[in-house]
Amino acid sequence: MIAEKTNTAQLIIDKITSSANKINFINDNVISKALIFIEKNGFPTHKNEDYKYCNIDSILKKEFKTIEQKFGEVNNLKEYKLPDALTLVVVNGKYSQSLSDKIILKGIHINSLSNLDDNGKTKITKIANVESDALIAFNTLFANEGFHLKITKNETLQFPIQIIYVNNSTSECIVNPRNIIELEENSEATIIEHYINIGNSKCFTNFVSEKYLANNSKLDCYTIQDENTNGYGVYTNQIEVSKNANYTNTTITLSGQLVRNNHNVVLANSNCEANLNGLFKINGNQIVDNHTLVDHQFPYCQSNELYKGIIDGKSTGVFNGKIFVRKDAQKTNAYQSSKNILLSDDATINTKPQLEIYADDVKCSHGTSTGKIEDDAMFYLHARGIGKESAKKLLLNAFAGEVIEKIQVESLKELIQTKLNLL
Amino acid sequence: MISIKNLHASIEGKEILRGINLEIKAGEVHAIMGPNGSGKSTLSSVLAGRQDYEVTDGEVIFNGKNLLEMEAEDRAREGLFLAFQYPVEIPGVSNINFLKTALNEIRNYHGKEDIAAKDFLALVKEKQKLVELDGKLANRSVNEGFSGGEKKRNEIFQMAMLEPKLAILDETDSGLDIDALKIVANGVNTLKNKDNAYIVITHYQRLLDYIVPDFVHILYKGKIVKSGGKELALELEEKGYDEIKKQFELSE
Ligand SMILES: Nc1ncnc2c1ncn2[C@@H]1O[C@H](COP(=O)(O)OP(=O)(O)O)[C@@H](O)[C@H]1O
Ligand SMILES: [Mg+2]
C-alpha cells in the first residue's frame, strides 16, 4: 500500500500543493474521484496504449526531479502579441488581468473559474471527465487558477482573441492552466491559444480546456505551440459541438521538447462540423504526439482532419486519429489524412488511424503517407540553378502550405511562415 | 562551348554511355538522334548532373570548367539548361515562385542582385508570349495538371527566362502536335544567337525541318556511331534505324 502511495503523480501533487490555493468551487465528490483515480493509475506510462510513444510518468520522473515552483515575473509580451487581436495572458498557469487587454468589447465575458455562478460551475469537468485521464484529474486539482471565457448569444467578434500562455520558470516547475470557453447560441469567434516559455528552467504544462459550442455557433481556433527546449507539455482539449455548430482547430507545433496533444471532439447533435488541422516541424530529439478523437454521435455531421509532419534529426512524431461513428450517426461524412516527410534516417513517425463505425449509411475514409523529399523534384529544381537549401525550403513550404493556407488570420499566417523559416 | 571526351557512365552497374566524344562551339546546333534506349536521356542527365549515374571514365569541359566536378545547380548557374523529356510535377510550388527563385539564384551566383519584381513580371510577360503559354499557368503549381504539350512549352518558357549558354532539349518534340512544334521551334530560333548553342535530341526528323541543325549525330548503344550534316537526318528518316544498327553490329 505504501508503495502505491508514492507514485510519481502523488509525489508531484504533494510538492506543488503548498504553493497553490485550495479549491472550494468544485464538488468535493469530483475532487475525491480525481484523487482516487490518480492514486490508482498514476501518470500514464508506455504500457498505456494511448501513451505508447510518450511516457509521461518516466519523463516527469527523469526530467522533473527537483520541482521547486519558482517563477520569474513577466512584464512585456509585446513581441508575441498579434497586432490585430485582443490579447489575454496566462502567466505561469494563472490568468493575469494586469497583462491582459481591457475587455471593453460587447459580447465577451471573462471570469475566473472560482467566481463563476452555479450554472457556470456545472461546466467545469462536465466534458473533461476526471476519471478518463490522470492528467485531466491532476489538472482539476489545480483548476482554481483558470478562467472562463464566454462569447454571448448572437455576437460575431470582429477581432480574434489571442490567449498567450507564458511560462517563466526559474526552477523546475509544473503548471496546470485551465479554461472553459463557451460560445453561446449563434455566436462566432476566432481564438488563438499561443504557448510560449521564456524561463531558463524546465517547465511542464498540463493544460486542460473545455470548449462548448452551442447551437449555430462557430469557433475558429488555433493552437500555436512555440515553447523552447525547456518546454514539456500535455495539452488536452475537450470539445462539445451542438446542433449546426462549426468547430475548426489548427494546431501548429513549432518547437518544444515534448508536446502531447489530446484533441477530443464530440459532435453532440445533428448537422454540425469539425475540422482538425495540424502541422508540426521537429528536429533534435523532440517528441510531438498528436492524438485526436472525433466522436460522431448524431446524424448529418461532418468531420475533416489533415495532419502533416516534417520530422528531422532524431525526433519522433505521432499521429493517432480516432473516429467513432455511433449507431445513430447516419449520413456521417468523416475524412482523415496524415502526411509526413522524414528528413533524416533517424527520424521516426508513428501513425495510427482508428475508425470505429457502427452506422451503415456513412462516408468515411482515411489515408496516411510518409515519404522523403523526392529526388526527382529536387533534381528538377537543381537543374534550374536552385541550390540545396532553397530547393528544400521550396518543397517543404509546398508541403506545409496545405495546412498554412487554412489559417484565416493574416498576421498569424505571416508569423507562422516566418517561424517555420520556409520562405 | 562544351567538349565531351570518352564519356562513360553507368547506372546500377550497367554501362549505358560507352565512350561519347562530342565537340560543340558557340553558335552551333547539334542534333542527336537514335533509337529508344540508346542513351540519349542518360547523356542529358549526366551532363545536367543527376546523381543516380556514375561517371566511370572521360571528361567534360564546359566553357573552360570541369563540368563533372560541379553540383547540378552550379552547372545550371554556369549556363547549362536541360529541357526534360519528362518534366517533373511539383505540387504546391508555384511556377512563378519557382522561376523567380531560379533566376535570382543564378543572378546571385554571378554577383548580381535579385531582379526587381517589376522587371521580373515584365520578363515573364515577354517570354510567355514567345512560347504562347497561357498566363494562367504561371500561377499554377509547377507542371501540375499541365497537358503534355503545356509541359514542353513550359520547359522552353523556362529556358527563355534563364537564357542559358547551352541548352539540351531532350525530345521536346515528342507528344507535340504540329502547331505546338512550330511554337517551340520558333521559340528556339528566336533565342538562338552566336553566343549560345543547342543540343536537340529527337527521334524524328520532323523537328529538324524547323530547327535546322549544323550537325547530326547518331547515338546507338551508348556511342556516337555516325556524324554528319543535316542531310544525315533525312537519310535516317528514309532508311530507318535498321541500316545503322546493321552497320554497327558488323563493326562491333
Ligand atoms: N534509372 C535507370 N535504371 C536502370 N536502367 C536505366 C535507368 N535509366 C535508364 N536506364 C537504361 O539505360 C538505357 C538508356 O536509356 P535512356 O538514356 O533513357 O535512352 P533514350 O533516352 O535514348 O531512350 C536503357 O536501356 C534504359 O533501360
Ligand atoms: Mg530519352
Assembly annotation: heterodimer
Which range does the strand content of chain A fall in?
35-45%
Inertia-based shape of chain A: globular
- Largest beta sheet of chain B: what is the strand line-up? 6-9-10-3-11-12
Write the layout of secondary structure elements.
The complex is a heterodimer of chains A (423) and B (252).
Chain A: H1 2-5, H2 8-17, H3 28-41, H4 56-63, E1 86-91, E2 94-96, E3 108-112, H5 118-121, H6 134-140, E4 147-151, E5 161-167, E6 173-175, E7 178-183, E8 188-197, E9 203-213, E10 218-226, E11 231-241, E12 246-255, E13 258-267, E14 273-282, E15 287-296, E16 302-311, E17 316-325, E18 333-342, E19 348-357, E20 363-371, H7 375-382, H8 388-404, H9 410-420
Parallel strand pairs in A: 1-5, 4-7, 5-8, 6-9, 7-9, 8-10, 9-11, 10-12, 11-13, 12-14, 13-15, 14-16, 15-17, 16-18, 17-19, 18-20
Antiparallel strand pairs in A: 1-2, 3-4
Helix pairs in contact in A: 3-6, 7-8
Chain B: E1 2-11, E2 14-24, E3 29-33, H1 40-48, E4 54-62, E5 65-66, H2 72-77, E6 80-83, E7 90-94, H3 95-109, H4 117-130, E8 141-142, H5 148-162, E9 166-170, H6 178-191, E10 197-202, E11 215-220, E12 223-228, H7 231-239, H8 241-251
Parallel strand pairs in B: 3-10, 3-11, 6-9, 9-10
Antiparallel strand pairs in B: 1-2, 1-4, 4-5, 7-8, 11-12
Helix pairs in contact in B: 5-6
Bound molecules: adenosine-5'-diphosphate (ADP) and magnesium ion.
Adenosine-5'-diphosphate binds at residues 11-12, 14, 16, 34, 36-42, 52 of chain B.
